[in-house]
Inverse folding.
């Protein structure tokens, strides 16, 4: 009983009194979506910075000297993996320091396009839960004394993700099966498609570094016309001109902007992962349901 009472007191103290700034675990996340996951699990026990900020494109990011300083001062560096941060290994090497590199897609089987792994696993909420579990384990390993806080925060956030997953599935049922087809700029929504049954067709590959060939664009225009695909979507990290051209040549309406690889700033439409997913499914159902 004394041991149980002591554990309860530890949890109460840990969750009641925030850590001082100098006591917080310094964590660097490679881009904004991962930063949001870390903040939800770590709470005020972590100090989180991101290298690729809101509306930034992680595929083509060019690291800065400030990024090397962030990594040198960090205890953990949280990365997606699946080839998303191709610029990161050299940065870590040049930064020195003793940060542990945590790959949050561990335990997720990647989708592939040819020989390339699709890195956008977070577009499935079920995969996002795996990210959160891996982040929780990494934070606990780095700061065991804060383990009760990390577990409680993760449990609360995972419950929100469960509700979000149900919300997305309910929204998709509002879209007639014949209309569950859209065009987006690059192939960022493969995991969403696999999880929720909406087909995404894109002229550009899994990285925004790719360029669409004229033959690919012509083929998509033909496909849009033949399949009567109702809507095309812009992305916040991609050049809108290609999608606008497809829209103009096919008559498919522009359904709005989808957020694929980045969150927005606090005043934007998608400042958190949950708000990003909600925005995307609202945009899809508004364009496709009728």
């Amino acid at each position: 009983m004394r041991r149980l009472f002591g554990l309860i007191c530890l949890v109460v103290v840990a969750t009641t009194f925030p850590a001082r700034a100098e006591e917080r675990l310094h964590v660097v996340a490679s881009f904004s979506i991962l930063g949001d996951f870390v903040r939800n699990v770590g709470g005020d026990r972590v100090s989180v910075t991101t290298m690729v900020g809101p509306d930034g494109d992680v595929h083509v990011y060019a690291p800065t000297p400030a990024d090397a300083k962030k990594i040198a001062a960090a205890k953990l560096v949280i990365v997606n993996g699946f080839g998303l941060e191709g610029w990161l290994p050299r940065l870590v090497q040049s930064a020195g320091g003793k940060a542990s590199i945590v790959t949050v897609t561990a335990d997720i089987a990647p989708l592939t396009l040819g020989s390339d792994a699709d890195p956008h696993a977070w577009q499935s909420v079920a995969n996002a839960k795996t990210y959160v579990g891996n982040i929780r384990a990494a934070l606990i390993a780095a700061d065991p004394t804060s383990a009760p806080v990390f577990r409680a925060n993760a449990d609360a956030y995972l419950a929100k993700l469960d509700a979000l997953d149900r919300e997305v599935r309910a929204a998709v049922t509002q879209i007639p099966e014949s209309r569950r087809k859209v065009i987006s700029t690059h192939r960022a929504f493969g995991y969403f498609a696999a999880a929720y049954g909406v087909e995404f067709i894109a002229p550009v590959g899994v990285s925004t570094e790719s360029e669409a060939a004229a033959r690919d664009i012509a083929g998509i225009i033909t496909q849009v016309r033949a399949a009567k695909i109702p809507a095309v979507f812009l992305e916040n990290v991609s050049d809108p001109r290609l999608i606008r051209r497809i829209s103009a040549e096919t008559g498919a309406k522009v359904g709005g902007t989808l957020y694929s690889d980045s969150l927005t700033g606090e005043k934007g439409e998608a400042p958190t992962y949950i708000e990003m997913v909600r925005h995307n499914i609202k945009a899809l159902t508004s364009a496709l349901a009728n």
The longest strand covers residues 25-31. Residues 147-172 form the longest helix (26 residues).
